[in-house]
Amino acid sequence: xxxxxxxxxxxxxxxxxxxxxxxxxxxxxxxxxxxxxxxxxxxxxxxxxxxxxxxxxxxxxxxxxxxxxxxxxxxxxxxxxxxxxxxxxxxxxxxxxxxxxxxxxxxxxxxxxxxxxxxxxxxxxxxxxxxxxxxxxxxxxxxxxxxxxxxxxxxxxxxxxxxxxxxxxxxxxxxxxxxxxxxxxxxxxxxxxxxxxxxxxxxxxxxxxxxxxxxxxxxxxxxxxxxxxxxxxxxxxxxxxxxxxxxxxxxxxxxxxxxxxxxxxxxxxxxxxxxxxxxxxxxxxxxxxxxxxxxxxxxxxxxxxxxxxxxxxxxxxxxxxxxxxxxxxxxxxxxxxxxxxxxxxxxxxxxxxxxxxxxxxxxxxxxxxxxxxxxxxxxxxxxxxxxxxxxxxxxxxxxxxxxxxxxxxxxxxxxxxxxxxxxxxxxxxxxxxxxxxxxxxxxxxxxxxxxxxxxxxxxxxxxxxxxxxxxxxxx
Length: 475
Ligand SMILES: *Cc1c(COP(=O)(O)O)cnc(C)c1O
Known about the structure:
Largest sheet: 7 strands, mixed
Helix content: 40-55%
CATH architecture of the largest domain: 3-Layer(aba) Sandwich
Bound molecules: pyridoxal-5'-phosphate
Number of helices: 20
Strand content: 15-25%
């Protein structure tokens, strides 16, 4: 075997010489001197290491090769870390994949509002200062029946702010069955402490009664708190006090009743054929003073924390200094406005709001999508893997309705091997390759197969267009 001659460190050009190469000039024009010089140094450093190790060929440091390497380095450096992906995990509101996907109307409004200045806090009628809350307050009140509303960065902030504003330095009574932990270190006892409130636990893990709350109320009590047990289910011998009863008690004893709904769907999920989830409308009608919920769970909008309720309580929350630190930025606010506007046209939701469109897809519809992928995917993966159409279960995700499953369909991909040995490695290799595609495909591994649930796939061509690359990379 003939080897090309080795390059030694002295053969490497200087940075200046590299930057003067004619083939490097277009890079300087496109990106400016700073970045190109930094990447040139990175490239020469790595080539020097190879030269010292004796593994660098003279051919690797030809002008043409050097400028191609430099261009690749620059491209990699500028590639965004945040990437769009295809969520074929079967979890519709996937916390790790950015939760809800915005409706087109929200993307359009968001983009339009960011192209220039806007009236975020400006009253276009009288030319004076406006309040950013007023952009969505009317919509939220119309949809939920609340007297007033305000919005913050996320529901965790909504809960923290509500407790701090309404119960700072005083006692908050909460059932032991509702001391939830949401992923990412949001734990009710810690939130209470951060908000400067004194948490008073009542009842037991499985059963809490009205009398438990009644007995705990004293002169230091500011609030009764209900927390929706969104990401777990207490089953069996259980009892909790409905909001309507707590509301009577709260009114009689002159304390606030605040409910953290977590997801808080704005439409009756039951009417859409989905598992029932309490709505802010129901909580307010039951007499809750304040209800908080997320913008990017079942609501299907941007990350936001929505706070709706009685006017005097909302005013107190809005005026509390912490509100300034937690306020919603103009980007999600624009997206939220357009998303809420869709709720004025509820008939359009299952078509135009991706979260509800995907959740309400029938198994037959999902099967049709999977069917369209079956043959092309088989062709791309043969002979190492077999692909079959399979029924599977999707979940709603993001802590919503943790025990409910939606009948779904997708592809199950299994390695072709003599025995079970090597199955894990072969599946890992496939999953890694799928994640490495230009538009990464994220599935899930279960029962010695990689499952690609097609519930959230709107456009099969986004998969089909990548199959040639997939086939190449697996070879
Ligand atoms: C999800 C959730 C939260 C946190 O909401 P974010 O919008 O993620 O901040 C708080 N409480 C409950 C009950 C939840 O389900």
